Amino acid sequence: MPSPGLLQSTTRWRTSNMADYLRLRGLARPGPAGGPPPPTIRTRSMKVPKRLQPLVDDGMIDEVIAQLMSGKEAQVYVVRCGDGLRCAKVFKEARQRSFKQAVQYQEGRKMRNSRRARAMSKKTRYGQKEQEQAWLSAEVDALYRLASAGVRVPQPFGFVDGVLLMELVADDEGYAAPRLDDVTLTPEQARDYHGQVIADVVRMLCAGLVHGDLSEFNVLLDPQGPVIIDLPQAVDAAGNNNAAMMLERDVNNMRAYFGRFAPELLTTDYGKEIWALYESGELHPDSRLTGHFEHDTSSVDVGDLMDVIDDVLEEEAERLAPAWEGS
Ligand SMILES: Nc1ncnc2c1ncn2[C@@H]1O[C@H](COP(=O)(O)OP(=O)(O)OP(=O)(O)O)[C@@H](O)[C@H]1O
Ligand SMILES: [Mg+2]
Protein backbone atom coordinates (compact mmCIF):
# COMPACT_ATOMS: atom_id res chain seq x y z
CA MET A 1 0.00 0.00 0.00
CA PRO A 2 1.46 3.39 -0.89
CA SER A 3 2.44 5.75 1.90
CA PRO A 4 -0.49 7.93 3.00
CA GLY A 5 -0.28 11.64 2.30
CA LEU A 6 2.84 11.88 4.40
CA LEU A 7 4.60 14.24 2.10
CA GLN A 8 2.09 16.91 2.95
CA SER A 9 2.55 16.08 6.60
CA THR A 10 3.52 18.97 8.84
CA THR A 11 5.03 16.64 11.44
CA ARG A 12 8.56 16.80 10.18
CA TRP A 13 8.65 20.52 10.80
CA ARG A 14 7.40 20.23 14.32
CA THR A 15 10.82 19.80 15.87
CA SER A 16 12.55 22.84 17.26
CA ASN A 17 16.02 21.65 16.30
CA MET A 18 15.61 20.08 12.90
CA ALA A 19 19.25 20.15 11.90
CA ASP A 20 20.28 17.93 14.82
CA TYR A 21 17.43 15.63 14.16
CA LEU A 22 18.49 15.24 10.54
CA ARG A 23 22.10 14.59 11.50
CA LEU A 24 21.09 11.87 13.96
CA ARG A 25 18.59 10.21 11.72
CA GLY A 26 21.46 8.12 10.42
CA LEU A 27 21.70 6.55 13.89
CA ALA A 28 18.04 5.57 13.95
CA ARG A 29 17.96 4.06 10.50
CA PRO A 30 21.25 3.54 8.65
CA GLY A 31 20.93 4.22 4.93
CA PRO A 32 21.15 1.32 2.46
CA ALA A 33 24.68 0.08 1.73
CA GLY A 34 26.10 2.06 -1.13
CA GLY A 35 23.34 4.66 -0.81
CA PRO A 36 23.91 8.35 -0.20
CA PRO A 37 25.59 9.12 3.13
CA PRO A 38 23.30 10.50 5.87
CA PRO A 39 23.14 14.32 5.93
CA THR A 40 25.99 15.81 7.88
CA ILE A 41 24.95 19.14 9.29
CA ARG A 42 27.19 20.37 12.03
CA THR A 43 25.16 21.60 14.96
CA ARG A 44 25.06 20.96 18.67
CA SER A 45 22.23 19.09 20.33
CA MET A 46 19.77 21.26 22.20
CA LYS A 47 20.29 22.40 25.76
CA VAL A 48 19.13 19.72 28.16
CA PRO A 49 15.78 20.72 29.68
CA LYS A 50 15.86 20.76 33.49
CA ARG A 51 13.44 17.87 33.88
CA LEU A 52 15.58 15.63 31.65
CA GLN A 53 18.85 16.41 33.41
CA PRO A 54 18.53 13.60 36.03
CA LEU A 55 18.12 11.04 33.21
CA VAL A 56 21.17 12.45 31.42
CA ASP A 57 23.13 12.31 34.70
CA ASP A 58 22.09 8.67 35.19
CA GLY A 59 23.18 7.78 31.65
CA MET A 60 19.67 6.83 30.52
CA ILE A 61 19.69 9.60 27.91
CA ASP A 62 22.86 10.50 26.00
CA GLU A 63 21.62 13.55 24.15
CA VAL A 64 18.47 15.62 23.70
CA ILE A 65 17.90 16.14 20.00
CA ALA A 66 14.73 18.12 19.59
CA GLN A 67 11.40 18.99 21.11
CA LEU A 68 8.28 17.74 19.36
CA MET A 69 5.20 19.93 19.45
CA SER A 70 4.22 20.41 23.07
CA GLY A 71 0.85 18.92 24.03
CA LYS A 72 -1.60 20.15 26.63
CA GLU A 73 -0.39 17.72 29.26
CA ALA A 74 3.25 17.13 28.47
CA GLN A 75 6.34 18.09 26.53
CA VAL A 76 7.71 15.42 24.24
CA TYR A 77 11.38 15.26 23.20
CA VAL A 78 13.36 13.17 20.73
CA VAL A 79 16.38 11.87 22.60
CA ARG A 80 19.34 9.67 21.78
CA CYS A 81 19.95 6.63 23.93
CA GLY A 82 23.09 4.85 22.79
CA ASP A 83 22.71 4.17 19.08
CA GLY A 84 18.97 4.75 18.84
CA LEU A 85 16.43 7.52 19.05
CA ARG A 86 13.66 7.45 21.64
CA CYS A 87 10.88 9.67 22.83
CA ALA A 88 10.87 11.25 26.30
CA LYS A 89 7.50 12.50 27.54
CA VAL A 90 7.80 14.98 30.39
CA PHE A 91 4.53 15.51 32.22
CA LYS A 92 3.64 19.05 33.17
CA GLU A 93 3.10 20.04 36.79
CA ALA A 94 -0.28 18.98 38.13
CA ARG A 95 -1.69 22.50 38.14
CA GLN A 96 -0.81 23.06 34.47
CA ARG A 97 -2.64 19.96 33.37
CA SER A 98 -6.18 20.04 32.18
CA PHE A 99 -9.20 17.80 32.12
CA LYS A 100 -7.62 14.41 31.95
CA GLN A 101 -7.09 14.08 35.66
CA ALA A 102 -10.81 14.54 36.26
CA VAL A 103 -12.42 12.19 38.73
CA GLN A 104 -14.41 10.41 36.02
CA TYR A 105 -11.22 8.88 34.61
CA GLN A 106 -9.84 7.71 37.95
CA GLU A 107 -12.80 5.70 39.22
CA GLY A 108 -12.05 2.00 39.55
CA ARG A 109 -8.26 2.29 39.27
CA LYS A 110 -6.72 -0.37 41.41
CA MET A 111 -4.06 0.64 43.89
CA ARG A 112 -1.23 -1.77 44.49
CA ASN A 113 -1.13 -0.88 48.13
CA SER A 114 -3.96 0.00 50.42
CA ARG A 115 -1.97 2.48 52.55
CA ARG A 116 -1.48 4.48 49.36
CA ALA A 117 -5.18 4.17 48.49
CA ARG A 118 -6.20 5.43 51.94
CA ALA A 119 -3.76 8.31 51.74
CA MET A 120 -5.06 9.30 48.33
CA SER A 121 -8.63 9.48 49.56
CA LYS A 122 -7.55 12.16 52.05
CA LYS A 123 -6.67 15.69 51.08
CA THR A 124 -3.33 15.71 52.92
CA ARG A 125 -0.08 16.71 51.21
CA TYR A 126 1.08 13.10 51.36
CA GLY A 127 -2.26 12.02 49.84
CA GLN A 128 -1.91 14.51 47.02
CA LYS A 129 1.65 13.42 46.34
CA GLU A 130 0.56 9.80 46.16
CA GLN A 131 -2.27 10.76 43.82
CA GLU A 132 0.17 12.57 41.55
CA GLN A 133 2.50 9.54 41.46
CA ALA A 134 -0.37 7.21 40.63
CA TRP A 135 -1.47 9.53 37.84
CA LEU A 136 2.00 9.80 36.35
CA SER A 137 2.65 6.07 36.37
CA ALA A 138 -0.75 5.27 34.83
CA GLU A 139 0.49 5.81 31.28
CA VAL A 140 3.55 3.59 31.58
CA ASP A 141 1.46 0.89 33.30
CA ALA A 142 -1.07 1.07 30.45
CA LEU A 143 1.68 0.91 27.80
CA TYR A 144 3.21 -2.25 29.28
CA ARG A 145 -0.20 -3.87 29.62
CA LEU A 146 -1.31 -2.98 26.10
CA ALA A 147 1.99 -3.86 24.44
CA SER A 148 1.76 -7.36 25.92
CA ALA A 149 -1.88 -7.61 24.78
CA GLY A 150 -0.75 -7.01 21.19
CA VAL A 151 -2.09 -3.44 20.88
CA ARG A 152 0.07 -1.19 18.66
CA VAL A 153 1.44 1.34 21.16
CA PRO A 154 4.99 2.73 21.49
CA GLN A 155 7.19 0.25 23.33
CA PRO A 156 7.82 1.62 26.83
CA PHE A 157 11.37 1.71 28.22
CA GLY A 158 10.61 2.88 31.74
CA PHE A 159 9.38 5.75 33.84
CA VAL A 160 11.93 7.76 35.81
CA ASP A 161 11.52 11.04 37.70
CA GLY A 162 8.21 11.82 36.01
CA VAL A 163 9.60 11.12 32.53
CA LEU A 164 8.26 8.36 30.32
CA LEU A 165 10.86 6.91 27.94
CA MET A 166 9.39 5.11 24.97
CA GLU A 167 9.95 4.09 21.38
CA LEU A 168 9.96 6.93 18.87
CA VAL A 169 7.19 6.10 16.40
CA ALA A 170 8.74 7.06 13.07
CA ASP A 171 7.72 7.36 9.42
CA ASP A 172 9.54 5.48 6.67
CA GLU A 173 12.31 8.09 6.64
CA GLY A 174 12.95 8.00 10.37
CA TYR A 175 11.17 11.25 11.20
CA ALA A 176 8.64 11.40 14.04
CA ALA A 177 5.48 9.87 12.59
CA PRO A 178 2.54 12.13 11.71
CA ARG A 179 -0.72 12.10 13.65
CA LEU A 180 -3.86 11.04 11.79
CA ASP A 181 -4.85 14.68 11.83
CA ASP A 182 -1.77 15.53 9.74
CA VAL A 183 -2.50 13.23 6.79
CA THR A 184 -4.89 12.82 3.90
CA LEU A 185 -6.07 9.28 3.18
CA THR A 186 -7.60 7.44 0.25
CA PRO A 187 -10.92 5.68 0.97
CA GLU A 188 -9.11 2.30 0.94
CA GLN A 189 -6.52 3.50 3.45
CA ALA A 190 -9.26 4.99 5.63
CA ARG A 191 -11.17 1.67 5.70
CA ASP A 192 -8.01 -0.32 6.35
CA TYR A 193 -6.73 1.93 9.19
CA HIS A 194 -10.21 2.22 10.70
CA GLY A 195 -10.36 -1.59 10.84
CA GLN A 196 -6.92 -1.71 12.50
CA VAL A 197 -7.85 0.88 15.12
CA ILE A 198 -11.13 -0.91 15.92
CA ALA A 199 -9.22 -4.19 16.31
CA ASP A 200 -6.84 -2.43 18.73
CA VAL A 201 -9.77 -0.94 20.69
CA VAL A 202 -11.13 -4.49 21.06
CA ARG A 203 -7.74 -5.86 22.21
CA MET A 204 -7.48 -2.96 24.64
CA LEU A 205 -10.91 -3.69 26.10
CA CYS A 206 -10.06 -7.39 26.37
CA ALA A 207 -7.02 -6.23 28.41
CA GLY A 208 -9.40 -4.27 30.67
CA LEU A 209 -8.80 -0.72 29.43
CA VAL A 210 -10.63 2.02 27.53
CA HIS A 211 -8.42 4.79 26.07
CA GLY A 212 -10.78 7.62 27.09
CA ASP A 213 -9.28 10.29 24.80
CA LEU A 214 -8.96 8.56 21.45
CA SER A 215 -8.99 10.97 18.54
CA GLU A 216 -7.06 11.82 15.37
CA PHE A 217 -4.59 13.71 17.60
CA ASN A 218 -3.69 10.63 19.64
CA VAL A 219 -3.09 8.13 16.86
CA LEU A 220 0.18 8.21 14.91
CA LEU A 221 0.69 6.63 11.53
CA ASP A 222 3.85 4.64 10.80
CA PRO A 223 4.51 2.50 7.71
CA GLN A 224 2.70 -0.47 9.32
CA GLY A 225 -0.40 1.57 10.18
CA PRO A 226 -1.94 3.29 13.22
CA VAL A 227 -0.16 3.45 16.61
CA ILE A 228 -2.18 4.58 19.62
CA ILE A 229 -0.51 7.05 22.01
CA ASP A 230 -1.29 9.29 25.01
CA LEU A 231 -2.73 7.02 27.67
CA PRO A 232 -2.42 8.63 31.12
CA GLN A 233 -6.19 8.88 31.40
CA ALA A 234 -6.88 5.26 30.34
CA VAL A 235 -9.96 4.02 32.13
CA ASP A 236 -10.52 0.75 33.96
CA ALA A 237 -13.24 -0.93 31.89
CA ALA A 238 -14.75 -3.07 34.62
CA GLY A 239 -14.56 -0.66 37.56
CA ASN A 240 -15.52 2.66 36.01
CA ASN A 241 -19.15 3.65 35.47
CA ASN A 242 -18.14 5.96 32.62
CA ALA A 243 -16.32 3.24 30.68
CA ALA A 244 -19.21 2.43 28.31
CA MET A 245 -19.74 6.09 27.47
CA MET A 246 -16.00 6.64 26.93
CA LEU A 247 -15.59 3.57 24.74
CA GLU A 248 -18.45 4.72 22.56
CA ARG A 249 -17.04 8.23 22.38
CA ASP A 250 -13.58 6.90 21.42
CA VAL A 251 -15.00 4.67 18.70
CA ASN A 252 -17.30 7.41 17.40
CA ASN A 253 -14.37 9.84 17.18
CA MET A 254 -12.58 7.33 14.97
CA ARG A 255 -15.74 6.83 12.91
CA ALA A 256 -16.04 10.59 12.35
CA TYR A 257 -12.37 10.95 11.40
CA PHE A 258 -12.11 7.99 8.99
CA GLY A 259 -15.66 8.73 7.73
CA ARG A 260 -14.30 11.96 6.21
CA PHE A 261 -12.40 9.82 3.69
CA ALA A 262 -14.74 6.79 3.52
CA PRO A 263 -18.28 8.11 4.18
CA GLU A 264 -19.80 4.62 4.31
CA LEU A 265 -18.13 4.23 7.74
CA LEU A 266 -20.42 6.94 9.12
CA THR A 267 -23.36 4.53 9.37
CA THR A 268 -21.48 1.95 11.46
CA ASP A 269 -22.06 1.41 15.17
CA TYR A 270 -18.98 -0.48 16.37
CA GLY A 271 -18.96 1.21 19.79
CA LYS A 272 -22.31 -0.18 20.95
CA GLU A 273 -21.61 -3.56 19.36
CA ILE A 274 -18.22 -3.89 21.10
CA TRP A 275 -19.58 -2.85 24.49
CA ALA A 276 -22.57 -5.21 24.27
CA LEU A 277 -20.22 -8.14 23.52
CA TYR A 278 -17.90 -7.09 26.36
CA GLU A 279 -20.76 -6.85 28.86
CA SER A 280 -22.07 -10.28 27.95
CA GLY A 281 -18.57 -11.79 28.31
CA GLU A 282 -18.39 -12.64 24.61
CA LEU A 283 -15.71 -10.21 23.47
CA HIS A 284 -12.42 -11.76 22.35
CA PRO A 285 -9.43 -10.20 20.57
CA ASP A 286 -10.51 -12.00 17.39
CA SER A 287 -14.29 -11.46 17.73
CA ARG A 288 -15.90 -10.93 14.34
CA LEU A 289 -17.72 -7.61 14.29
CA THR A 290 -20.43 -6.47 11.91
CA GLY A 291 -20.35 -2.73 12.60
CA HIS A 292 -24.07 -2.88 13.33
CA PHE A 293 -26.01 -3.02 16.51
CA GLU A 294 -29.62 -4.00 17.03
CA HIS A 295 -31.09 -1.32 19.25
CA ASP A 296 -33.65 -2.77 21.65
CA THR A 297 -36.92 -1.36 20.41
CA SER A 298 -39.19 -3.66 22.43
CA SER A 299 -41.81 -1.67 24.31
CA VAL A 300 -41.09 -0.77 27.92
CA ASP A 301 -43.55 -1.61 30.68
CA VAL A 302 -44.11 1.85 32.17
CA GLY A 303 -45.52 0.42 35.41
CA ASP A 304 -42.35 -1.65 36.03
CA LEU A 305 -40.18 1.32 35.18
CA MET A 306 -42.02 3.56 37.70
CA ASP A 307 -41.53 0.89 40.40
CA VAL A 308 -37.77 0.87 39.73
CA ILE A 309 -37.63 4.68 39.88
CA ASP A 310 -39.60 4.69 43.18
CA ASP A 311 -37.17 2.16 44.68
CA VAL A 312 -34.17 4.25 43.67
CA LEU A 313 -35.71 7.43 45.10
CA GLU A 314 -36.54 5.66 48.35
CA GLU A 315 -33.00 4.32 48.69
CA GLU A 316 -31.56 7.78 48.01
CA ALA A 317 -33.85 9.35 50.64
CA GLU A 318 -32.70 6.74 53.19
CA ARG A 319 -29.06 7.39 52.31
CA LEU A 320 -29.47 11.13 52.82
CA ALA A 321 -31.66 10.94 55.93
CA PRO A 322 -28.91 10.91 58.63
CA ALA A 323 -27.33 14.03 57.12
CA TRP A 324 -30.63 15.93 57.28
CA GLU A 325 -31.35 14.76 60.81
CA GLY A 326 -27.92 15.85 61.97
CA SER A 327 -28.18 19.34 60.50
N1 LIG B 1 6.16 7.72 20.96
C1 LIG B 1 6.04 8.78 20.16
N2 LIG B 1 6.64 8.81 18.94
C2 LIG B 1 6.54 9.89 18.12
N3 LIG B 1 5.85 11.01 18.45
C3 LIG B 1 5.24 11.07 19.63
C4 LIG B 1 5.27 9.96 20.55
N4 LIG B 1 4.58 10.30 21.66
C5 LIG B 1 4.11 11.54 21.44
N5 LIG B 1 4.49 12.02 20.24
C6 LIG B 1 4.18 13.34 19.68
O1 LIG B 1 4.02 14.28 20.74
C7 LIG B 1 2.71 14.85 20.73
C8 LIG B 1 2.20 14.99 22.17
O2 LIG B 1 2.14 13.71 22.79
P1 LIG B 1 0.91 13.26 23.70
O3 LIG B 1 -0.35 13.28 22.90
O4 LIG B 1 1.26 11.94 24.35
O5 LIG B 1 0.95 14.41 24.78
P2 LIG B 1 -0.18 15.26 25.47
O6 LIG B 1 0.47 16.45 26.05
O7 LIG B 1 -0.87 14.38 26.42
O8 LIG B 1 -1.13 15.66 24.30
P3 LIG B 1 -2.56 16.33 24.32
O9 LIG B 1 -2.36 17.63 23.61
O10 LIG B 1 -3.36 15.34 23.52
O11 LIG B 1 -3.02 16.48 25.71
C9 LIG B 1 1.86 13.88 19.91
O12 LIG B 1 0.81 14.53 19.26
C10 LIG B 1 2.86 13.30 18.92
O13 LIG B 1 2.97 14.13 17.77
MG1 LIG C 1 -2.18 13.89 22.87
UniProtKB/TrEMBL annotation:
Keyword terms, alphabetized: ATP-binding, Kinase, Magnesium, Metal-binding, Nucleotide-binding, Serine/threonine-protein kinase, Transferase
Q: What is this protein called?
A: non-specific serine/threonine protein kinase
Instruction: Spell out where the chain crosses the membrane.
Output: none
Query: What NCBIfam families does the record tag this protein with?
Result: prot_kin_PA4780
Q: Which reaction does it catalyse?
A: L-seryl-[protein] + ATP = O-phospho-L-seryl-[protein] + ADP + H(+); L-threonyl-[protein] + ATP = O-phospho-L-threonyl-[protein] + ADP + H(+)
According to the record, the residues making up region (Disordered) are: 105-124
CDD domains annotated for this entry? RIO1_like
